[in-house]
Write a structure and sequence with these properties.
The chain has five helices and three strands; from the N terminus they run E-E-E-H-H-H-H-H. It is mainly alpha-helical and about 190 residues long. It has a three-stranded antiparallel sheet, with no helix packed on it.
Length: about 190
């Protein structure tokens, strides 16, 4: 038998009476927690796989860039090096440097996914605690903790927009307008 009531937080509370006739409150919370844990596991596995592959590739690019710099320096010091060879060496060095910068974007992606895992873990933690999940201050504390962990200004602004109730599509459009379209610079963290 299921009886749905609206909790003051606006969430539907399910009072389910299982075969043992003991009511189980908030059964949907337990199911939500399971899905949060599954999402966390998937993200963690993705980060682990990506880190292993990208870290090795990043090191190779860095080593190639260093060898190419040395080779270009040597070729520039030789008086009989054709200008076409020097130009190709400079172009190749530039392209490799662009590749190294691309790895910075992967670092940013990894950092954001780690933040997602952190948010999911904090959400799982509070949802699993019957006392804390009903206290607005507990949710405020988690929000403060989440915002404090952000190292990028764009993440803090997105957080503020979403917490203030800005529809997600509007918040994302503001991000694109403010951080992607004006320039392609990498915000270092």
């Amino acid at each position: 038998m299921t009886d749905l009531n609206l909790h003051p937080t606006g969430m539907a509370a399910a009072n389910v009476t299982p075969a043992g006739n003991q009511p189980v409150d908030w059964i949907h919370i337990h199911e939500t927690v399971k899905l949060l844990l599954l999402s966390m596991a998937q993200i963690e596995l993705t980060l682990t796989d990506g880190d292993h592959n990208v870290t090795g590739l990043g090191q190779q690019f860095t080593e190639m860039a260093e060898h190419l710099r040395k080779m270009n320096h040597h070729l520039q010091s030789e008086p009989d090096t054709p200008t076409e060879i020097l130009a190709h060496g400079q172009q190749l060095e530039s392209k490799i440097n662009e590749g190294v910068v691309a790895f910075q974007f992967y670092d940013r992606l990894s950092q954001r996914l780690e933040h997602v895992v952190n948010v999911l873990a904090l959400t799982e933690e509070i949802l699993s605690d019957e006392q804390r999940r009903l206290k607005p201050q507990a949710w405020k504390n988690i929000q403060t903790q989440i915002k404090t962990n952000y190292s990028l200004d764009c993440e803090r602004k997105m957080f503020d927009l979403v917490i203030q109730g800005t529809p997600l599509h509007e918040a994302l459009e503001l991000y694109r307008t403010d951080y992607i379209e004006p320039n392609d610079d990498v915000e270092l963290f």
